[in-house]
Amino acid sequence: MNKSDLRIETVGCPIHGGQKVGVTIRTVKVTHVPTGISATCGSERSQMLNRDVAESMVEWGLEVIGLKGKP
Fold this sequence. Notes:
Layout: E1 6-10, E2 28-32, E3 37-41, H1 47-64
Antiparallel strand pairs: 1-2, 2-3
């Protein structure tokens, strides 16, 4: 899987004040552009870990459809 084929986005909802002001957005969505396979993860405590988990899920999806390791 080429990293250049991935589109990485942070996903969050707008927060309009209250207790959640200043909370960082941790949810990450990773999309494999050539196939359209995407995964979203927000369960980990850091954005970097969420990105790693989402990339692993996309890689697993490519393996399931038989494209892992192919350009």
